[in-house]
Amino acid sequence: MHDTPGIFPASEFENRTARFQSEMAQRGMDALLLTTPPDVFYVTGFLTRFWESPARPWFVIVPARGEPVAVIPAIGEPPMARTWITDIRTWEAPNPNDSGMTLLGDALRDLVPDTGYIGTPMGLETHLRMPLADYQYLCGVLGQRTLIDATACVQRVREIKSEAEVAKLRNICEIGGRAFDQVPQFAQPGTSLEAVFRAFQVACLQQGADWVSYLAGAAGPSGYSDVISPAGTRPIANGDILMLDTGAVRDGYFCDFDRNYAIGKPSAETTRAHEALWRATEDALAAIRPGMRACDVHQLLCQSLVRHGAEPGVGRLGHGLGVSLTEWPSLSADDETPLRAGMVLTLEPGAVLDQGRMIVHEENFVLRDDGAELLSPRAPFDLPVIAP
Amino acid sequence: MHDTPGIFPASEFENRTARFQSEMAQRGMDALLLTTPPDVFYVTGFLTRFWESPARPWFVIVPARGEPVAVIPAIGEPPMARTWITDIRTWEAPNPNDSGMTLLGDALRDLVPDTGYIGTPMGLETHLRMPLADYQYLCGVLGQRTLIDATACVQRVREIKSEAEVAKLRNICEIGGRAFDQVPQFAQPGTSLEAVFRAFQVACLQQGADWVSYLAGAAGPSGYSDVISPAGTRPIANGDILMLDTGAVRDGYFCDFDRNYAIGKPSAETTRAHEALWRATEDALAAIRPGMRACDVHQLLCQSLVRHGAEPGVGRLGHGLGVSLTEWPSLSADDETPLRAGMVLTLEPGAVLDQGRMIVHEENFVLRDDGAELLSPRAPFDLPVIAP
Q: How far is CA A92 from the centre of its chain?
């Protein structure tokens, strides 16, 4: 009944599959087994919020040659049949006696030689979205076939975005930017933070987001101590800094950036910290190039923050972005991932204030051969003031 | 900076912990290792949308005696410190060299005897939300301690809701009901399904949802063939049946029910199918009692649908509901879970029409000693008609 034409033409998915198969060949993998929402969407174009239910596992196999095979619950057949995937094998789930294991085992035995290697992501920032007992059972029925870690294979492919993907990311960043523009209309002093969160999500939807998978933020006197919590009931007040950080989604692609607002005239300390964050971001956007490593950008941001008089926040200061709110690599001290043209990344420097407070700042961009091209509308140099 | 008082008093979590520890003792488990958003929220009250980022694993250990221990990324310490949990151990994540494994291994060795058993969910409707390679490493550093399946332990505890939980579920069901009441205002013929989806999410937020984790639906001539897809651009048209199915969230608790609307006068076939679904739901609500098994209710629904002239849909016809959109058990032919007072469940019978079409119907209720108490406002017997 749906007439969604598909988010991308089949050629986009054929290219992705070819790139996977090239990485697999280099690593001696005979098949790739994928189980998570972003990986399944990435290979097939199958987009559903039904992943919210943990009841059913979903599997996609990328063979060494030829097209991917979907091994999925029957309830997903109609939408999967509208994607470019033609080999769709289904079972009635949930089934306490066989969670698709017979079907999946048969498919892997068909596609993989007797002593072959099956890759699945096992490393940093991954998990296996299927029951662990089923995974252990599967290992037992695959004979001499071996399951190996495919994290690097998936990372190397997914972290380079096609122009079609960049266009999707630019679109959702623009939608997020328009929603942020409306914040002064509803984030008035006296409004509870939870009312601000609701209004911001409404703004994202009205500006064109399909849904809002992520919203965090905080408001507190001259800064905040927590950037990942849902909202409380405290009314925002004169002297607060309000921060909203959103992961809105359009066509399966995420934005991930934040904005700060001063409720009334900001303190000199806050103004200085915001300026340092803005300038450090500017420095990094100007300097970043393919060939640097993720950790080089982390160091560059830290040095720039210090030069501009701020104490850098701990932890990572940016990350990949795409079909998931956060993707590899991490812009952190110990991530040596080489940066390549086509990566879409966030820069999110934080400045530590006293009494456990901080201010954070975030932009999204695509890395080109000659440097960064912003996707999020650049935050203003001057902290926007919402008059009390 | 947040002043959220906590969704529940500490006594709620103490009771949950005691119930886990009782189930663990019966199964000879010395600790329970939990990794997923619903399980971590259930034990600690730690609620964040930050799970949307796959970058970091989060761990909670319920020991055989005493309070739970949180082993989490440092970024989560401020909000976790506002919960009832006092033993919080943190590391800077993501860290490619150690994803919390040293900390988690130490904690488990402290809490579990040398030859003890550590339960973690491995079974139906579960997954382990941590890198598989880390899990394999962890197994290696635990010496003679053994990891065993804790699915039944977690299911038996989580599937019985406290009155405080029932109140949360009633509240989000009422919010969802008020949003459904508004559908005729924006689902006019000519409006695209994606515009209807956006407006419905806005309505959920404006009625009090914190966020809308799930929305699916469809519209088609006298029925639809797919109930899990996001919306397409096709305008809804005279003769369509429009169905919306939402999992909106308030205070971490989900509703999960749907509503159908006829665009213009429904066909006799559609009217008959909707009546059969309504009557079968009524029959099941009247007959369901503690002591039945999940499969008994499935059979009851199927028989009632046939009696009322409809062909039952395949797959499960209902499921548990709570801190996740769907929870155990499944009202399916092969789920023999005994139903107990305090369970919150959905009934979702489907009627198969010809040409791959169907109509589905869903309500949420809590099972009491003397039967079902509805939480969702009951769907009207007559299919609501949106005049063209």
A: 31
Cα–Cα distance between B73 and B79 in angstroms, integer?
11
C-beta neighbour count of B290 within 10 angstroms: 15
DSSP, collapsed to helix, strand or coil, labels residue B255 as coil
Alpha-carbon gap: B275 to the closest alpha carbon of chain A (Å): 23
Find, among B303, B307, B309, the residue nearest to B317 by Cα: B303
Interface predicted TM-score (ipTM) of this complex, two decimals: 0.97
Q: Are A243 and A227 in contact (CB under 8 A)?
A: yes
> How confident is the model at residue B5, as a pLDDT?
52
| Neighbouring residues of B101: CB distance < 8 A, sequence distance ≥ 6 | B134, B137, B138, B141
Q: Which of B75, B99, B124 to mutate to test the interface with A (most CBs of A within 10 A)?
A: B124
Sign of the Cα torsion A8, A11, A12, A13 reads positive
Query: pLDDT tens across A91-131, in order?
Result: 999 999 999 999 999 999 999 999 999 999 999 999 999 99
CB neighbours of residue A143 within 10 Å: 13
B211 touches chain A (CB under 8 A): yes
Nearest one of A330, A217, A35 to B55, comparing CA atoms = A330
Q: Does B331 touch chain A (CB under 8 A)?
A: no
- Cβ-nearest to A232 among B2, B78, B326: B2
Cis before A329? omega within 30: yes
> Residue-wise over A78-96: b if at least 16 C-beta within 10 A, else e?
bbbebbbbeebbbbbbbbb
pLDDT the model gives residue A2: 37
Residues of B in contact with A197 (CB under 8 A): 210
> In angstroms, rounded to a whole number, what is the distance separating the alpha carbons of residues A263 and A385?
6
Residue A214 and residue A229: Cα distance in Å, rounded? 11
Cα(B360)–Cα(B372) distance, rounded to whole angstroms? 20
**Which residues in chain A are closer than 8 Å to B230, comparing Cβ atoms?**
4, 47-49, 210
Q: Which long-range contacts does B22-25 make (Cβ < 8 Å, 24+ apart)?
A: B23/B152, B23/B153, B23/B156, B23/B157, B24/B62, B24/B64, B24/B119, B24/B150, B24/B153, B25/B64
At residue B101, the 3 state secondary structure works out as helix
The residues with which B139 forms a beta bridge, in sequence order, are none
**Measured distance CA(B210)–CA(B26) in Å, rounded:** 38
Chain A contact present for B158, CB below 8 A = no
Closest CA to A259 of A269, A268, A248, A251: A248
- DSSP labels, A119-131: EE--STT--B-S-
Number of continuous H segments (helices) and E segments (strands) in chain B: 11, 19
Residue whose entry in the numeric block shows the structure tokens 């979903």: A58
Q: Is A380 exposed, middle or buried (0-12, 13-18, 19+ CB in 10 A)?
A: exposed
Q: Name every chain A residue with its beta carbon within 8 A of the beta carbon of B350.
A: none
Is A244 part of the contact surface with chain B (CB cutoff 8 Å)? Answer: no
Q: What are phi and psi of A33, to 5 degrees?
A: -110, 120
Give chain A's end-to-end CA distance (angstroms, integer).
50
8 Å CB contact of A218 and B1: yes
Question: For residue A226, what pLDDT is reported?
Answer: 87
Cβ <8 Å between A210 and B229: no
Residue B131 CA to residue B123 CA, distance in Å, equals 17
Q: What is the pLDDT of residue A6?
A: 72
Residues A47 and A13 sit within 8 Å (Cβ to Cβ): no
